[in-house]
Amino acid sequence: MPRSLFTMLLVMLAGSAAAWEEPARGSATRGALMDAIRPIAEWKLGAPVQFVVHDLRREGNVAFAGLKAQRPGGGAIDPRQTPAVARGEEDGSFDISEIFVLYKKSGDTWVAVHYSFGATDAWWSWEPLCREYRAVTPGACAPFD
After folding, report:
1. What is the sign, positive or negative, of the torsion defined by CA atoms of 129, 126, 50, 7?
2. Where does the pLDDT of residue 38 fall: very low under 50, low under 70, confident under 90, or very high at 90 and above?
3. Which residues have CB under 8 Å from 88's CB, separation 6+?
4. In the chain, what's the furthest Cα-to-Cα distance?
5. What mean pLDDT is predicted for residues 7-30?
6. DSSP string, 55-120
7. Are the beta carbons of 89 and 65 closer than 8 angstroms?
8. Does residue 25 carry a pLDDT above 90?
9. Is the overall model pTM greater than 0.70, yes or no?
């Protein structure tokens, strides 16, 4: 992730009074959130992937994640060697292993509703998304409060 975007994300989300929680490592909720984005990440980046969690927030039936995809054991993903490039969806010229996700719980299942690979802006701060996801992106949505 570009350092400036990660720094901006931390500043925007840090320090806000929030009721959200970070699902604990090894918890069923954390596993379900990672499992919801995994098939999408593997389709784009190739299997297998594991995630380094930069940010994970859940409140009620919505959640937000800032993730870095890697190969098991910490191996970097070469964007030029991904299925997305092979299919012509990406050109391989930039890092698409940084993933941002907005989730919604549907029944007992977490669904990755909005997501991006290699985003260079905080698209989740868009007012229509803030209406639904403000609880997990409070700093990003502050201009609309």
Report:
1. negative
2. very high
3. none
4. 44
5. 72
6. EEEEETTEEEEEEEEEBTTTBPP-GGGSHHHHTTS--SSS---EEEEEEEEETTEEEEEEEEES-S
7. no
8. yes
9. yes
